[in-house]
Amino acid sequence: MPAPRYHVIVNPIAGTGSAPKFINDHVCSLLERLGLAADVHVTEGVKDAGRIGRDIVLERRETPPADGVTRVIVGGGDGTAHEFIEGVLEATRELGVPLGRWALVTLPLGTANALHSTHFPPDAAATPIPPALAAEVGDVSPEVHQALSSLVLALAGAEPRPLPITLTSLVRADGTVAETIPDHIVLSTALHAAILSDSDALRAEHPGLERYKLAAAANISVFFPADVELVPDSRGVRQYDPRTRAWVAPYSADSEQDGKVRLTGPFTYFLSTTTTPRLEPTFVIAPTLTALPRDEGERTTDIVILRPLRDPAVRKAISEGGDGGAAWAARAKEVLGGAYQAGKHVQFTYAPDGGAVEVAGAGDVVVETFRCAGFTWRPTDDAHAKSHIVCADGSLYDIPAGGEARAHVLGSDPADQASSDSGFWVWG
């Protein structure tokens, strides 16, 4: 069998703009020294990585790789990978060709490098370079070594790990699909999506990180009107219990029917992730991904939810004619602060008197954490524009008026026609 061939995507504007030099100095030169073929694709604008994905699908259709695996080195951040995966899925769907097997190498060359950092934390020991590769890699700095970790595993012949993809259909009021979007890092609505949306609008006036703080302050007290339906996998919908630190049957659902769990809003936080427990190096929003890892081949997502009307302090404020949003803002800061303490927030329960939260106490759970095959997010007020925003790997989309967002993990729905050997993998 011939030596594997790599496609190298270079996003010259990702992160600090260092991708072209890094790839030239440390990636293409390494592949050349190893005698491996590489096709370099340079993005030329926003979403151009999707065009590259489509081009590779067309090439793969005419000349399939000898071993059935298309190898791609992503020289950018999470956004570049998102655009590329979106382009591949759109092309296979439009052309009616099998998805096949795709294996990705990550390089932390973007602004957000959540996937790479999840597999190769900056404070973890560097991935060992096998003796057979050491001479070719050369004497590199610890930072370069860490950045090359995914590529080293690929070149060393390690098995890549599955990269679950969530597909979200934005559905119109008449039931037709307006758009289908993938994500491989995080899908969110409510606070997380609203912060990203508002921060984009503030970019010109506040180009630095301050705009995220301003956007968070503007949305921390907002209640997002929506209803949610959680879709079971073969094990049903499971909910995390902080007292047993295990998955149990749902205990905070408003109703259940045919295995589907229904949650009534409003919501303040709603985030789904299949791969990444942390959104920042110390902000561990979904610790269950690592504390309770999925079985091999399990196609599920972990969902982190906050519903303000479950808070005794908020209900008390509203009943007394006060501002429920103000009462919730203080609680939200307390709860989300726990995410910076190794994901401690998922252990919180409400104190009966509405005071400070407790850890695994007798009261109701604060953060509702579920594991399931997918969900439907259905805004209940068309005049509330922010409840219609969906964020997929940092890209923003809008749910049509009267519509909904239906999300499922690729392969969990028979309509996907996905086999166990098709989809995306990543060296990590």
Structure commentary:
The chain contains twelve helices and 25 strands. The chain is α+β, with helices and mostly antiparallel strands. Helix 2 crosses helix 3. The relative contact order is 0.15. Residues 1-160 form the DAGKc domain.
Keywords:
428 residues; alpha+beta; Rossmann fold; Tumour Suppressor Smad4; 2 domains; seven-stranded antiparallel beta sheet; globular
Tell me the layout of helices and strands:
Elements: E1 6-10, H1 19-33, E2 38-42, H2 48-62, E3 69-76, H3 78-95, E4 101-108, H4 114-119, H5 131-137, H6 142-147, H7 149-155, E5 161-162, E6 166-171, E7 177-183, E8 187-189, H8 190-202, H9 210-219, E9 226-231, E10 238-241, E11 246-248, E12 255-257, E13 260-264, E14 269-273, E15 278-280, E16 283-284, H10 288-291, E17 301-306, H11 312-319, H12 324-337, E18 348-349, E19 358-359, E20 368-372, E21 374-379, E22 389-392, E23 395-398, E24 404-409, E25 423-426
Parallel strand pairs: 1-2, 1-3, 3-4, 4-25
Antiparallel strand pairs: 5-25, 6-7, 6-24, 8-14, 8-22, 9-13, 9-21, 10-11, 10-20, 12-13, 14-17, 15-16, 17-20, 18-19, 21-24, 22-23
Low-confidence region ranges: none
Side by side, the strands of the main sheet go: 11-10-20-17-14-8-22-23
Name of the CATH first level of the largest domain:
Mainly Beta
The largest sheet, given as strand count, sense and whether it forms a barrel, is:
8 strands, antiparallel
Structural class: alpha+beta
Average pLDDT number: 93
The total tally of domains equals: 2
Distance between the termini: 25 Å
CATH topology-level name of the largest domain: Tumour Suppressor Smad4
Global morphology: globular
Total strands: the figure is: 25
Strand content: 25-35%
Q: Provide a count of the helices.
A: 12
CA radius of gyration is 22 Å
How helical, in percent, are the residues? 25-40%
CATH architecture classification name of the largest domain = Sandwich
Domain DAGKc: 1-160
Pfam family, one: DAGK_cat
InterPro entries: ATP-NAD_kinase_N, Diacylglycerol_kinase_cat_dom, Lipid_Phosphate_FormReg, NAD/diacylglycerol_kinase_sf
Protein name: DAGKc domain-containing protein
